[in-house]
Amino acid sequence: MGVVETVVELLYYLALILGSVMILAIIVSVVITVIVALLLAYSFKTGNVLFPNLMISGLMFFDSPVKTIFRTFGVGEGKIDRIGINLKNRAICPAFRKTPFNRRAIFVPQCLRSVRCPAALSPEGIMCKDCGACNISEARKKAQTLGYKFFIVPGSSFIVRMIRQYQPEAIIGVGCLCEVREGLDMMHRSKIPAMGVIMDRAGCVSTTLNWDKLYDVMSLSEVPLDGGNKQETTGTDTSAEKSTTPQ
After folding, report:
1. Neighbours of 137 (CB within 10 A)
2. CA distance 130 to 186
3. pLDDT tens digit string along 70-97?
4. In which element (H, E) is residue 106 found?
């Protein structure tokens, strides 16, 4: 009986310790959730951002509880996601700016193409033929002149494969609200500086983008443009290169 009683007593104390740890973890989670919610509310009201790194981590790990709090006050998830993306862009911008252009990559979704797009799928993504039916050709040329690798994305798994293959040190991702949010979280976990640009209208076809926003992000740099950077040909069908001016 002595051994049994000792085991029972040990199990009792173990249960107390585990219970205390769980209660402490719940309390800490609630406190962090409330702090993040208050910081977000302050950002909504003033437009100023306090402790962006804390807010980014809080939104990543306590996304659902924070959104539950704001839904109670009638704030939609989309607004919270937009604030989160802006915070992540602001926090990561210094590291992004320090990355040379020729060590960056841009990923744009294929839904930005014209419905009349003649481009075909390849292992390097959709290969632009510079037909001028959409703005992708112009964006690609500007990006590649700076030194970027430029990809027209056929699917999310393609992005992971291209990152593994080319190992860019910084990324610009274009997409709908959900895609940009998930992509920035993935890059944050992978420790790759990434800037997100949200499309004006989402969907499967005929989506729209404020291209000037993309160009503004594309040009961010603290590193002088090296005149020796080679223009990349990724995402381009060089055999069908034309001089047509994009619309």
Report:
1. 21
2. 31
3. 778 777 778 878 878 888 888 888 899 9
4. strand 104-109
